[in-house]
Design brief:
By secondary structure, the protein is α+β, with helices and mostly antiparallel strands. Among the domains are: about 230 residues, 2-Layer Sandwich (BirA Bifunctional Protein, domain 2), CATH 3.30.930.10; about 100 residues, Anticodon-binding domain (Rossmann fold, 3-Layer(aba) Sandwich). It has 18 helices and 23 strands. The strands form 7 sheets. It has a 7-stranded mixed beta sheet, with helices on both faces. A hairpin with a 6-residue loop joins β4 and β5. The longest helix has 27 residues.
């Protein structure tokens, strides 16, 4: 099945089972804004807890913060967002649709990469164990031709970004005949810059109001508070400040479901270090963050680092952790060496010293900053798209059954345990309720008594519940139940008294933390 079709099924699944809804749907929706349903909010909260605890609990020198969304407007002037927070915009004259010129070009290179991957996959199948991928890529004429196209486009793209040459961006689109995905037309306007910040007015009257911005990132709230945290927490460099919060960007092209939205949530950590030591910590946090992603147990070949073609004005090093979504490799987390740009800017614009006194060096300085920034919504999409699985199951009678299962990491699953009485009588519902009442303080449990056991299993598979417990008549006699494992569908008889320990061992975040470097 084509990846595009799989992705459409995933989007439909998210709605059908209460993970993600279109915002304001009864009013025909609001473009690129989504609501998280009863299952989605649980998964989202578990992702945030995994990140927060891995930052704040596992690092003695990282603490938390929750800064306001509304901030003094001069902050965004100091940070460069008012003047330079732009995306290159291009319109198709026939479809009247807007696109980011850089995204259109990146998608073009991704198509060439896909062609190479298909050639490699065919060759692997043909040659088997004797296949040498590196040699094949260096000698196959079709692969070499596509790689040359990638290299050529990439070099022109990087040069255009470095020079802020909007005409060259358009010329690349024209030269490679990039068409509008909606109309198929190649009738494009010129490329122009578009500021992504939302603005609003603060004040009780129109005359007395101030223009302020909805924050496009959470980092600036950390920077303007870094000295408050350092002094009140008696923090010594190096130290970090972590924050989870909403951010807002008026995206030109908001697409691919919740991958790019106008209202989204970030998990950011700013790590303050001595000048001159930033690259050591940059490499350290690259390794630490990749370890955090891989601990979830997904295939390692789904991850890669991608160094930035053009560094932001504040950075001297930047890389993205990319994940292979159904629509290709895309960024899920950025690690940046932001130098001392932000703190120096706020010092200059505010007129207040925000230097750190280093008792070991006996001098004051403005720290350098290493940033790790990850989108909660993208992380949600990454996890659920990788977990979505369609399986065919051969039954004893020779018939083939199908199931859709979310093979979520057990610690992140919205519901950890479903308890099901075999029948709705003979004291079985009461026994099932007893089990839930004992476990619900520690685990998110669900009671389910409707339909056959098979249908109930399928419902729980679809929301990613790792364990189902069936209460039958034998349970009343010897206090044992049948526990079913989601991924293997294996069943075993266990004592009710042992359920807590089984769940504690299998669904705890502690098991994920043990895998971290």
């Amino acid at each position: 099945m084509a990846q595009e079709d799989v992705f459409k099924k995933l989007v439909a699944h998210c709605k059908e089972y209460g993970f993600v809804f279109q915002s304001s749907e009864i009013y025909d929706g609001l473009s690129a804004v989504y609501d998280y349903g009863q299952m989605g909010v649980e998964l989202k909260n578990n992702i945030k807890k995994y990140w927060w605890d891995s930052m704040v609990l596992l690092h003695e020198n990282v603490v938390g913060l929750d800064s306001a969304i509304f901030m003094h407007p001069t902050i965004w002037k100091a940070s460069g967002h008012v003047d330079a927070f732009n995306d290159p915009l291009i319109d198709n004259k026939d479809s009247k649709k807007r696109y980011r010129a850089d995204v259109l070009i990146e998608d073009l290179m991704a198509k060439f990469e896909t062609k190479i991957e298909k050639e490699v996959a065919k060759a692997k199948k043909r040659f088997g164990d004797a296949f040498d991928e590196a040699e094949f890529k260096s000698t196959n004429p079709r692969v070499k031709a596509n790689q040359e196209k990638i290299d050529t486009v990439h070099q022109r793209f990087v040069d255009a970004l470095d020079k802020n040459d909007l005409n060259e961006l358009k010329q690349i689109i024209l030269d490679y005949e990039i068409a509008c995905p909606i109309s198929g037309s190649k009738n494009w306007t010129d490329v122009r810059q578009f500021n992504l910040m939302f603005s609003t007015d603060m004040g009780s009257t129109a005359d007395g109001s101030n223009k302020i911005y909805l924050r496009p990132e959470t980092a600036q709230g950390i920077f303007v508070n870094y000295l408050n945290v350092q002094k009140t927490g008696r923090m010594k460099i190096p130290f970090g400040i972590a924050q989870i919060g909403k951010a807002f960007r008026n995206e030109i092209v908001a697409r691919q479901f919740i991958f790019r939205m106008r209202e989204f949530e970030q998990m950011e950590m700013q790590f303050f270090v001595r000048p001159g030591e930033e690259m050591k910590w940059f490499d350290k946090w690259k390794e630490t963050r990749m370890s955090w992603h891989k601990a979830l147990g997904f295939s390692e070949d789904k991850y890669r680092f991608h160094d930035h073609d053009k560094l932001a004005h504040y950075a001297n090093a930047a890389t993205d952790i990319e994940f292979k979504f159904p629509f290709g490799f895309k960024e899920v987390e950025g690690i940046h060496s932001r130098t001392d740009f932000d703190l120096n800017q706020h010092q200059d614009f505010s007129g207040k010293k925000i230097q750190y006194f280093d008792p070991e060096l006996n001098k004051s300085y403005v720290p350098y900053v290493i940033e790790t920034s990850i989108g909660v919504d993208r992380m949600f999409l990454q996890i659920i798209s990788e977990a979505y699985t369609e399986e065919k199951i051969e039954k004893e009678n020779g018939k083939v059954d199908e199931r859709v299962v979310l093979k979520l990491p057990t610690a992140l699953a919205p519901v950890k345990l479903a308890v099901m009485p075999l029948v709705r009588k003979d004291g079985l519902p009461e026994k099932a309720r007893e089990i839930i009442n004992e476990l619900k303080f520690d685990f998110n449990c669900q009671y389910d008594e409707k339909d056959s056991i098979g249908k109930r299993y399928r419902r729980q598979d679809a929301i990613g519940t790792p364990f189902c417990v069936t209460v039958d008549h034998q349970s009343l006699e010897d206090n044992t139940v049948t526990i079913r494992h989601r991924d293997s569908m294996e069943q075993e008889r266990v004592e009710i008294s042992k359920l807590y320990e089984i769940l504690k061992e299998q669904v705890s975040l502690k098991e994920l933390f043990k895998k971290l470097k």
